[in-house]
Amino acid sequence: MTTIEKQLLASPRNHRYVLTVAAIVLILLAWSLSAVSFKDVNQNGLAIALNILKGIVHPDLDLLFSVSKQSVLYLLVQTTAIAFLGTLVGAVLSVPLAFLAASNIMPKPIAWLTRMLLIMIRTIPALVYGLMFIRVSGPGPFAGVLTIGLTSIGMLSKLYVDAIEELDKKVLESMTSIGCTTFEKIRYGIIPQLFSLFLSVTIYRFDMNMREASILGLVGAGGIGAPLIFAMNSYKWNQVGSILIGLVILILLIEWFSNKLRSKLVQG
Amino acid sequence: MIEFNHVNKTYHNGTNALKNINLKIEQGEFVAVIGLSGAGKSTLIRCINRMHDITSGHLYVNHVDVSKLKGKQIRRFRRRIGMIFQSFNLVTRMSVIKNVLVSFVPDLPMWRKLTGVFTKEHKLKALEALDKVGILDKAYVRVDQLSGGQQQRVALARTLAQNPDILLADEPIASLDPVTSKLVMDDFKTINQTMKISVIMNIHHVEIALEYADRIIGVREGEIVFDGAADQVTKETLDNIYGSKSNETPFLAEAN
Amino acid sequence: MFDKWFPPKKMVLPNGKIVLEKRSRLPLTLLTLAAVTALSVNLTGFSLHVLFTRIRQFFIILGEMIPPKWSYTPQLWGALLDTLQMSVLGSMIGALLALPFALLASFNVIRNKAVVTIFKVMLSLLRTLPTLVTALIATFVFGLGPTAGLVAILLFTLSYVGKLLYEQIENVDMGSFEAMESIGMTRVQAFRYAIFPEVLPRYLSTTLFCFEGNVRYAAILGYVGAGGIGLLINENLGWRDYPRVGMIILSLGVTVYVIETISEHFRKKLN
């Protein structure tokens, strides 16, 4: 056997592993195929698809630009308000939870318990929270704010914890040598480090919450979602069009704004 | 004046870091402490401003018995001693001037401490300190945009703003390239000569130590094995400080 | 702009040097934030008083979910499997479609600027629509049922994986691509042998990560009639049968946990 042939045989043999994984994936795929059926797609469906497209091209301009409480503009501002206030509530709640869950400053059992709590909060879907909060505040945007606040906690505190666990503690050493007290070290050594990181994470979550807030209307928790579903159910396609256009533009705008703000925070 | 009288330091794990140290440093001296890693250089320096407690003996700084100080007294005592670290230890997400202003924080009234609003007088003092180390133009730049050498100068300015009598430096140039190292060392020398501030420095680079310091203290296994003027240091002295094979120690080769 | 309205303050050092101190933006930022918050409170009817007096209702409902109704489990299976099927199929087809889309949106593979821009815009527009809205539209086109959910998940996966993939392709070192073109390969072949191996691990791990999220999304799509377990959540919440809702959430939590554990295992291997 030449050395070349030996090398050929020595090439890593994980074929069996790759094949097994591929087979499992294929089986999953075949099994999932049974979920699809296009028997309900008929002329009607195609017609509706066409109508939606038509509605987007010919939106209800009156609905889009007027300033009544039913106008798209008002509803979008309300949606933004829900997302903003919800993010604020979520951030305020997340800060203490994040400190409780940070394993480098809290005893292990407390950090572990807090993490469990956060996982449980994350498990319940936003719409379920929405319906539960409607029992608290009645239907309307207030329920939306509370829902967004609670569902933001999971991600916000996780990312806050990451920031806390990466704190640079050497700064504190030099502040000790200056003669600072513990309070002064927290105020001038820790908070400046965390502040911009926390802010950047929070802005990112606000961006995500825009999407969340726009669907909460489906359960009656305020925002643009409810008018959208009404318009669709009553086949008013040019209203659907104007709502979709407004929503897409707003979300893109906020995404762009949030990216810009965050890169400014990171680079100073 | 700093005075060590039979000072011993034993760590909790039983390591005997300092053994019977006797030392006198006059105001305005430039002292370099050299020795292998783990010889006790860092411990020696950190005892002076009570970052470490001594186990026995007496340590006087300007006639104050350091080991007798408590709580608030320690913090007041540290206000007169500046300290510089290998890793700069700045808040990199804050601007240069804000990092320097931190050195005034302990003297502020409570509301200023909370809000972080500083007086114009303090801002001017901070700017002056920055001017002394030549980075006045960077005052409003965020620290993470500066080079290593510039960051170490910010740290220097921060200690200068304290208006200290003594400047302790723990490996101040260990994370800097040779050219920047020289610049920072020049700053130390200027500060030492024009402001009569004592400089006590731990340093790995023997060549640089010999070039800048007036006095060399060699530490080996927690004991002072050499103490004298820089020009008295011979190859034998170095062999004694670093063990027999000083020529093969990497930092010497680096310094050459 | 800001500096024009609030000109920097002059600081004169004792030695005569002058430094310009820019005015702090903090007061203005705080003021804006406070105004936006006040406006938002006004627009949403937020009230701490209502919150504190009525928050008990929330915990009452939560309390009713515990213990969950175990006997409901057999009726759950069908819907849970539907949800899984939707997310598996949607993620797979979406990820496969993402490949050509990402290619066509990468400026270093496609030379035609117009094509690149069109595909980039398409991907970002797709990503903008919340999945639930896509699902809602899909129910009108494809009828009520899992197919609509599948389409929504597919589109989301396409946009998410597609965006991350083209960003990655654009960051690949082009040296090996050029080398392969220089030995006579077509651009497609060069892509297959130079870029594809580089981005494959990240592509697979992004797909897996997206799949994890999709299972969560798929669970609520039933709310707009797009099939799966969301339908049951909707029904039981409507009947206020909270122990059943508790059971659904528990089973969902376990499913998501299992899937995330498996997926994380493979993602770690890929990195």
Description:
The complex is a heterotrimer of chains A (268), B (256) and C (271). Chain A is mainly alpha-helical and 268 residues long. Chain A has two domains: 3-33; 43-266, Orthogonal Bundle (MetI-like fold), CATH 1.10.3720.10. Helix content of chain A is 80%, strand content 0%. The model of chain A has no long low-confidence stretch (mean pLDDT 86). Chain B has 256 residues and is α/β, with parallel strands linked by helices. Chain B has helices at 41-48, 71-78, 96-101, 110-115, 120-132, 148-161, 178-195, 206-212, 235-242, 250-255, and strands at residues 2-10, 16-25, 30-34, 56-61, 64-65, 81-85, 166-170, 198-202, 215-220, 223-229. The longest helix of chain B is centred in the C-terminal third of the chain and has 18 residues, at 178-195. Chain B is globular and about 55 Å long. Mean pLDDT of chain B is 87; it is low at 248-256. Chain C has 271 residues and is mainly α. Helix content of chain C is 76%, strand content 3%. The radius of gyration of chain C is 26 Å and the shape is flat. The chains are: A mainly alpha (268), B alpha/beta (256), C mainly alpha (271). Chains in contact: A-B, A-C, B-C. Chains A and C meet through helix 2, helix 3, helix 5, helix 7 and helix 8 of A and helix 2, helix 3, helix 4, helix 5 and helix 6 of C. Chain A: It is found in: Cell envelope; Cell membrane; Membrane.
